Amino acid sequence: MEKKDLFTSEIIDRLWRFARTILRSGEDAEDIVQDTLAKAWANPFTMNSPEAYLMRSVRNACIDQLRTKKEFTDEFPEIAEPGFVDGLNDKDLVYNALSHLSEQQRMIVHLKDIEGYPISEISQMMGLQENHIRTILSRARKAMRENIETELNYGNRH
Amino acid sequence: METDIEKVKHCVSLWLEGESTDQQEQFLKDYFSKVSPEEIPEELKSVAALFRGNAALGTERMPHTIVPPQRNSNRRLWWMLSSIAAVALVALLFVTQKDKLLNEQAPATDNVTFAYNKKTVVPTESSQNESQMTEQIAEKSEAISQGRTKKESTHVGKSAEIYGYDYDGKPITNEKEAMESVECLSYLDVFNENISTLLDF
Predict the structure, then answer these.
(1) Which of A80, A92, B1, B15 could form a disulfide with A87 if both were Cys (CB 3.0 to 4.6 A apart)?
(2) Contacts of B66 in chain A (CB under 8 A)
(3) In a domain, B179, yes or no
């Protein structure tokens, strides 16, 4: 893969969606993706799987940003609340349910259920064993189902 | 169809445990994307929302485009021209100063010469200047060519004509070899002169 192939819309969109799920902000995700691609462009490219490398880079950058934000939101806890979703369309329900998960759960659910990566690749990206990935996935899916059931029941009563 | 519903429920339970295969997950994606909401059992509505929501999120695009950084062609051109100019300047200096370097007399290095007849070539102090050494080499060459040699005993006690001594200090008894050695020494002298001149320059 050549460097210019990094700038295909498919890869950029995938990186952005992943960053947005982690950060819960589309604007912040754009900044992260731009920075990641700029660094990848500036550095020599020798790895066999550039996309996996970029996904890991985005993940690490997002974690760093979240840590920085956490120091800020610890002081201002009201800012740490997940975004309120007004609509009941499926996309918003899932996005809201994702925001209630931990960072690790959000990453794994996004990579598996939204982007369709196999467990083996997710295991490499996250640095976790496959069995561990499945366990996290199970807990996250069940938690999201409960959250959506609550939203649907609330929506049906009102 | 009941069979489909039972199969769907079975696959959903495996999916929630994280144990479903890729084929079972694809089956669930296809089912929930095609089935109408009214046909979905109540207990599966939240899972249906999950699958449909995941599919929708997977098609979203970043609002703004990113373009690859453009190479600064002006900067590259400047570097190329600078490199060419530097090489041209060095070449010009060499050409204009070459004659001067080669024709200038090397300053007398009174006390330094190389002892070719010793095992290791080290600078040694000598009272002879270089012009005298050149004369000596010329004299020896002439002596060898005219057959005027000195008979000396070799280290093994045998008499033989010795024309000089080689790099390792061994006597040279072959005339041709002696001539070549002298010629080589004279070239080395010229080489040393040029090196000294360049270093001083």
Answers:
(1) A92
(2) 7, 12, 33-34, 37
(3) yes
